Amino acid sequence: MKSLEIKNNIFWVGAIDWNVRDFHGYSTYKGTTYNAYLVKDEKIALFDTVKKSHMQDLVHHIKQLVDPSKIDYLIVNHVEMDHSGALPEMVELIKPEKIFCSRMGLKAINEHFHPKDWPLEAVENGQTISLGSKTVHFLETRMLHWPDSMFSYLQEDKVLISSDAFGQHYATSERFDDEVDFSQLMEQTAKYYANILTLYSPLIRKLLAKVQEMGLEIDMIAPDHGVIWRSHIKDVIQAYADWSQNKGQRKALVIYDTMWQSTEMMAKAITTGINMTGVSVKLINLAVTHRSDVMTDVLNAKAVVLGCATLNNGMLPRMAGFLMYMRGLKPTNKIGAAFGSFGWSGEAVKLMNAAMEEMKFDIVEPGLRFKYVPSHTDLQECVEMGKRIGQAVITQTEE
Ligand code: FEO
Questions:
Q1: What's the N-to-C CA distance of the chain in angstroms?
Q2: What is the rounded CA–CA span in Å between residue 278 and residue 284?
Q3: b/e string for 82-107 if b means 16 or more Cβ within 10 A?
Q4: In the chain, what are the helix, strand and coil shares in percent, each to the nearest 5?
Q5: Any idea what the Cα angle at residue 45 is, between residues 43 and 50, rounded to 5°?
Q6: Is residue 399 part of a domain?
Q7: What percent of the chain has pLDDT over 90?
Q8: Is 7 strand, coil or helix?
Q9: List 73, 153, 170, 192, catalytic entry
Q10: Which CATH number goes with the domain that contains 33?
């Protein structure tokens, strides 16, 4: 690939990782990019680096524009290794006059790299630095999604370098939002939000309000992953506003794992019942669906109905793992219900209900269990339960 000027003397110099398929438990079927930006002015600044494995791509892209040793400032918006893994080698190569980061970034850099004599300088929220004709305005975005996270706003060009926010794990040869398929782009943007940012939704609401209050004009949002937003800025900000509200659409998910298909029979009957109320419903078998794709569906669903057979007095491992993952992401404002078949002890339904109670889901059913194989009458009961859940979705999405 080639470096690319995205706006007056602001260049993309990052790396494309076509092959990554797993990001600490998040499936990245479409690969990703590690974006870094070089700004040429009286002072030359590099915003973020890349994953260590992709350092040569970064260096190659920088060298198309400038000798790396001519870079004056390094700006570290986020210390997670996909953006800072190449930092020690880049500091060695560049020998920067200064490395700017947030106060928490300073701590994180020290705790990651234990540097001896790096010219680190912590900036405050709202602080600015001048590169010559361009001003960089730093915005602390603590816990979005690490304590050290910050945005850099290039004031004169109205470019927001947004770190992980508004990113997508989406490897493409195109660099802009209007050059790729919009529905695929939004799907990857939603997946990123669902799997990285859901638990920080209250902070996102505050951040969006703050940006509005500051009257920040934005011509371009340049995230650290995926394509750069220039034509669909309003769409992505609106999507973040909607997702952070956790409202949930008129949609239900029936998520299950099954042992000998009895729980699957129940799942199908419950799906039928929900569908009969006119509510959109999706049946998801955890054996064939990655937990991070399930979370993308959870993002805008109103009801999460969980089904699992009992194994060794507990849940099947796939459901237990999914619940552990979902609990960490803390989706809120959901309707919940549980069901499952069992042989003799039957603890799974109780355990799923307990997990949903912990997430403060509104549990609208006590839970439905059948021994071994459900009869036709039992399945009718499942259909009825599905109808009641569908009705609850309708009522709660009307509010
Ligand atoms: Fe893309 Fe939080 O690192």
A1: 50
A2: 18
A3: bbbbbbbebbebbebeebbbbbbbbe
A4: 40, 25, 35
A5: 165
A6: no
A7: 97
A8: strand
A9: 192
A10: 3.60.15.10
Tell me the two tokens of residue 390.
Answer: 């569908």
Q: What is the b/e burial string over 27-47, where b = at least 16 CB atoms within 10 angstroms of the residue's CB?
A: bbebbbbbbbbbbbbebbbbb
Q: Residue 361 burial by CB count (10 A; 0-12/13-18/19+): exposed, middle or buried?
A: buried
Confidence of residue 399 (pLDDT cuts 50, 70, 90): low
Per-residue confidence (pLDDT) for residue 220, from 0 to 100: 98
23 CA distance to ligand 1 middle (Å): 10
Residue type, 134: K
Determine phi and psi for 358, rounding to 5 degrees. -60, -35
Note the pLDDT tens digit of each residue in 150-181. Answer: 999 999 999 999 999 999 999 999 999 999 99
Decide if 376 is catalytic. Answer: no
Does 205 lie in the same domain as 260? no
Q: Is the pLDDT of residue 365 over 70?
A: yes
What is the average per-residue pLDDT within 81-97?
98
Distance from Cα 51 to the centre of ligand 1, integer Å: 10
Per the structure, the complete domain to which residue 294 belongs is given by 252-393
Q: How is residue 197 written in tokens?
A: 């940012």
Distance between Cα 83 and ligand 1 center (Å) = 7
236 in the same domain as 87: yes
Choosing from 17, 48, 164, 381, which is the catalytic residue? Answer: 164
Residue ending a domain, choose from 220, 244, 268: 244
The pLDDT of residue 265 is above 90: yes
- Atom 2 of ligand 1, residue of closest alpha carbon: 80
DSSP 315-332: E-HHHHHHHHHHHHH---
Task: Mark which of 244, 266, 281 sits at the end of a domain.
Answer: 244
Q: Is the pLDDT of residue 83 over 80?
A: yes
CATH assignment of the domain containing 302: 3.40.50.360
Considering only 165-174, 243-252, 317-326, which range has the smallest mean pLDDT? 243-252
Q: Are residues 118 and 219 in the same domain?
A: yes
Residue 240 falls in the annotated catalytic set: no
Annotated catalytic, 153?
no
Rounded-to-integer distance, Cα 189 and Cα 242, Å? 13
61 is catalytic: no
Judge if 312 and 355 occupy the same domain.
yes
In a domain, 398, yes or no: no
Looking from the CA of residue 149, the nearest atom of ligand 1 is: 2
